[in-house]
Amino acid sequence: MQALVPLLDHASVLVFALTGALVASRAQLDLVGFIFFAALTGIGGGTLRDLLLGRVPVFWIERPGLLLVTSGAAVLVFFTAHLFESRYRLLLWLDALALAVAVPAGVGVAMGAGVSPVVVVAMGVVTGSFGGLIRDVVGNELPLILKQGELYVTAAFGGALAAVVLAGLGCARPLALIACALVVLALRAGSMVLGWRLPTYRARPPRR
Question: Mean pLDDT, to the nearest integer, of 14-32?
Answer without folding.
Answer: 94
